[in-house]
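Chapter summary example.
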Amino acid sequence: MKTKTELMYATMNPWKLFFVVALPGMVSMFAMSVYSVFEGIFIGKTLGEGAFAAVNIAMPLVMINFSLADLVGVGASAPISIALGRGDKKTANNVFSCSVILILLASILMGGVMFFAAEPLARMMGASDVLLDTSVRYLRTFALCSPLTTIFFAMDNYLRISGYVKTSMAINVVSNFGTIGLLALLLLQFHMDVVGSALAVCISMCASSIAALIPFLRRKTLLQFVKPRFSWAMLKQIAACGSPIFLSNIAGRVTSILMNISLMTLGVRMLGEGGGTTAVAAYAVLMYASDLCWPLLYGISDSLSPALGYNWGARNFDRVKKIARCGFTGTAVVAVLSTSFLFFCPRTVASLFVDSADTRLLELATHGVRIFCTAYIFRWIVVMTQSYLSAIEKPAQATIVSVSVAMVFPVLLLGGLWGLGLDGIWLNFPGVNVLATILAGILLIRLGKEIRRRETE
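The structure predicted for these 457 residues follows.
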């Protein structure tokens, strides 16, 4: 007999399903956007340009650590959803249990590497002598909390697969607003530097990980912890399905290294002494501005993945197409609104993170935001396509999209637009998404042909 969650995935009207699962996902991601904006404000306004640049240099390494959890968490989610769609709960529970163990082991290993090799890693990321100590301390704080912070992303996926959509939303909202409160306390009250910022995030994420585990420990969820049975076939399946997001994260961090090095070089060339730090700080503003939009797109596409995977496993291909159309429509609306806001209010956005007295950084960031934001005219197609392909166990195609977006296209355009100076950096993201949209369109056409063939079998 199907559970309430399975019936929701299998029979609920696609648009009603969209609002039931995607809206809470958007709320969760919006809360993350609010936290990210406030973090940028606290660091930029309280600690200054140097701290802003140091955090931007260290952040790719922090995200690489989180990407290992994504590799397993996202990689396990697709086969879990498909197994549930086929009615194979035994396999779903085993993959779930094994994945949690794998994440814990990987996070302990990666946390150790990050802590003990923080200084050479920060130098590799382009940290100058001025920024090195700040970057290292920020990185080591995250490394110490690695085991409990990294598990949260996977548990959030598993809550949504189990139908605990509102619980997931509540944990995310409380976590992100709790982080804002901790940021205010540690930076404004106790006058800590970037370590306070890192601690605020880590404390909040650790508490959220524990909260997300509770429903599973109480055995109230669709997914249940069982005695784990590892197999090479299962590990390969997890690795294959998780490779798009993992390779995207790794490739993106490599690209970030190249971007930081390029920004330091072009900044000095175009702005003079101290220009490298200013250019890196301006790019950090663009990344925080992106956090106003990107999480909303991801919230929609990621929230629909369990429903897409479940119906793909049940061979209900017509329903898969209808749910996907809802996802593409929803992300398109969000993208148009986001682009409009950033394009017409770039100085307002930049002013959130930059002190008004720092006119050089403010002008540079304002100009960059207006160019950078045009990427979202195309970004929605890329985000939804990658999530769609991952959800239905098309890891090769999803990997092609993710790696192209994260590294191949950015590196090609970095060289191609080098003559434009810093404008070439700001144009990189829009150019990448134009190329990625063309690629996504080709893969979607091929997928449509495959679905029509499967429907006739």
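To summarize the output: The chain is about 85% helix and 0% strand.
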